């Protein structure tokens, strides 16, 4: 059973799925979750198939530091589940804050080590645990936790970086995360960005209060990509009272999805400020995870003096209230 709104289904059956705005409205409607009923997979499948290849970057903007923006998916790197919608609620958190995973065999040992280092950095400041499902010593522990699902990390060529949002019970297939090598593994922050999607974090600039912190220059964004800059309602996600984090590892860069080489998202208090980075998760990124998973016994206020190389980046976050 998943959050579902029948009235919105009737609306979208009567309108074409050929509109990117329709996709945005449909997903938003499904996220609100005012009632529960069985899911009609046919319409979501049609929407997914229609738009999964559309969000490609303009040819003049393909920065190596942000390969996730070229994955041709919703908001660049978010994989819309075919038979489930993704929302941030207890239902979509990984059980016992544990993420079983399998890394595909075609990653090199060095690449596997880089992925594991990104996981270790998150683990060191949160109560999250990433457990190798192929490790025999972990199999019994995972069975005791009752995990039926796992994260499957693959490296499909020319697919960029992407991940599903949150945990989905009884999905019947692995939770997919793609890390095209070497671009998606070059920066620890890129791997962490996708891992934080997996555990339930959305993009920072999708916060409902973002207009107090940044300006979106819609005229510099092709209309086909406008939905990638839409805000998420407060009843779908929470910032847990944390200030807006301009340098969150989950933030878009200033020129994301630009159609003319001009800025698309700019900080209000300092228009020259760099936005986003891929060095690693910031203090507030990790605080958000701890708040989301109620990490009792784990630090909800990570050591702000931690070195960037340990996976915790010291960026700029400002209270905008």
Automatic annotation (TrEMBL):
Residues of the Peptidase M12A domain: 85-296
Lineage top rank: taxon: Eukaryota
Cofactor note: Binds 1 zinc ion per subunit.
Keywords: Hydrolase, Metal-binding, Metalloprotease, Protease, Zinc
GO BP annotations, alphabetical order: proteolysis
Pfam families in alphabetical order: Astacin
Annotated Zn(2+) binding sites: 193, 197, 203
Names of the cofactor(s): Zn(2+)
Molecular function per GO: metalloendopeptidase activity; zinc ion binding
The EC number(s) this enzyme carries: 3.4.24.-
InterPro entries named in the record: Astacin-like_dom (IPR034035), MetalloPept_cat_dom_sf (IPR024079), Peptidase_M12A (IPR001506), Peptidase_Metallo (IPR006026)
Residues of the active site: 194
Top-rank EC class of the record's enzyme: hydrolase
PANTHER family hit by this protein: DISCOIDIN, CUB, EGF, LAMININ , AND ZINC METALLOPROTEASE DOMAIN CONTAINING (PTHR10127), METALLOENDOPEPTIDASE (PTHR10127:SF780)
The name this protein goes by in its record: Metalloendopeptidase
């Amino acid at each position: 059973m998943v959050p579902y709104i029948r009235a919105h289904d009737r609306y979208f059956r009567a309108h074409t799925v050929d509109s990117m705005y329709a996709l945005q409205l449909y997903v938003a409607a499904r996220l609100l979750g005012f009632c529960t009923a069985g899911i009609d997979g046919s319409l979501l499948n049609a929407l997914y198939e229609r738009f999964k290849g559309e969000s490609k970057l303009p040819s003049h903007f393909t920065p190596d530091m942000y390969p996730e923006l070229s994955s041709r998916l919703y908001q660049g790197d978010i994989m819309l589940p075919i038979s489930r919608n993704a929302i941030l609620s207890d239902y979509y958190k990984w059980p016992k804050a544990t993420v079983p995973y399998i890394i595909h065999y075609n990653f090199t040992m060095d690449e596997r080590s880089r992925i594991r280092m990104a996981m270790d950095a998150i683990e060191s400041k949160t109560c999250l645990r990433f457990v190798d499902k192929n490790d025999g010593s972990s199999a019994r522990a995972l069975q005791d936790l009752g995990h039926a699902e796992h994260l499957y990390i693959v490296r499909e060529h020319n697919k960029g970086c992407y991940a599903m949002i949150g945990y989905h019970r009884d999905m019947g297939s692995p939770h997919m995360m793609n890390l095209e090598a070497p671009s998606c593994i070059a920066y620890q922050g890129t791997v962490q960005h996708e891992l934080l999607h997996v555990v339930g974090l959305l993009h920072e600039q999708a916060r409902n209060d973002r207009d107090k912190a940044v300006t979106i220059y819609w005229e510099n964004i092709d209309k086909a990509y406008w939905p990638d800059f839409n805000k998420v309602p407060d009843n779908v996600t929470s910032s847990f009272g944390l200030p807006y984090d301009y340098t969150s590892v989950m933030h878009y860069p200033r020129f994301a999805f630009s159609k003319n080489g001009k800025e698309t998202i700019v900080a209000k208090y300092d228009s020259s400020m760099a936005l986003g980075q891929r060095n690693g998760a910031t203090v507030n990124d990790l605080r958000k995870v701890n708040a989301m998973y109620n990490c009792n016994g784990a630090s909800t206020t990570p050591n702000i003096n931690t070195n960037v190389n340990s996976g915790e980046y010291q960026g700029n976050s400002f209270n905008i209230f």
